[in-house]
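Before the break, one more example. Copy the sequence into your notebook; we will annotate it together after we see the structure.
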Amino acid sequence: MTIRPFKSADASRCVEIVHTCVPTMQGLNAAAVRFILDESTPDDVISDVNEGLAYVDVLDGQVVGLGMLVEGEIKRMYVDPVYQGHGVGARIITALLAAAREQGLPQVRVEASLNGIGFYERQGFVQQELEIFRRGEVEFHYMHMLKRLEK
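Here is what the structure looks like once it is written out:
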């Protein structure tokens, strides 16, 4: 597996991964799942990447994971379920944290899905606050987490 910067040609595969992962995420009601899936098009992914930076993990020419760093926050961190538990997410986080250090950031934040909390804790993130976001029918439960970066 190889970590490399995201390329626009990766967007469609990244969307496939998002669409596979989101329905099984804990802390989202059905309206929230629909909302996230509707906001996960190739153009949306490319737009988000243009706000920061992103890395993908590639195996045999196919993207198996994605993660972004936008203004000190980890976003769109998804790993194809077939490859979860094989170090893909950890490799992506390592690359994103290295980039954050290069940018001189003192810390990195993430809004972790409920089933992602353990993963982020293993990467050195600390739970800060559980939040429930509601807008109309949409309801998200997520954990604010923080990792302070050593200099």
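The CA atoms of residues 7 and 84 lie 22 Å apart. The chain has a mean pLDDT of 95. Try to locate both features in your own notes.
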